[in-house]
Amino acid sequence: MALSQSTQFGMATAFFGLLSFLFGILGELKKPPHGTPIRGRDVVVCKFPSDPTVALGALSAVAAACCAGVGAVAIFFPYKGKPVPRKVLFDYTLLYVFFHLAIGITVAGISTTAWVTASEATRHVRNVHGDFGYECPTATTGVLGGAAFLNLDASLFWLLCLMLAGNVREDYFDGGAVGDEVAGLEEK
């Protein structure tokens, strides 16, 4: 038995959301607490152990963006080959609110993930410091893990939006309350 389009989109959204979460959590767990300061004559050179934090953070941000992209496309994708007008979708207040919440949480999650990943990468690249007391810290502990939870939350909001859009589609095509309004407009 083949899965419906809605189910396929929902599974893809959940997959990318969970993948983003796992990459972020693994990146947080693999991040060393600090580098090793090597003191020279007038500088401190930080030597960081090799770790996959930057790569995992970047993969987490990409997976979160894919999750949001699939979720947004799924809301507007034609149901059984027939599109639902955007106005009809967003006239449903719950969908309108959750859609905008999903966008906001996605932006917050991806931004935080990208910021902490770039911060960690910058510390690895710019590892020579003039301050002799520099202790070679890594990016703030817990931020990448928090961003992973934001990305997971965003994927759950996208899934809620998909369920709400499914309700609007059923009403629109099966003659529910929304469908009755549209049918009345089409007859005039």
TrEMBL record:
It is a multi-pass membrane protein. Keywords: Membrane, Signal, Transmembrane, Transmembrane helix. GO terms for cellular component: endomembrane system. It holds the Pfam family DUF1218. The chain crosses the membrane at residues 54-77, 89-110, 143-165. Belongs to the DESIGUAL family. This is CASP-like protein.
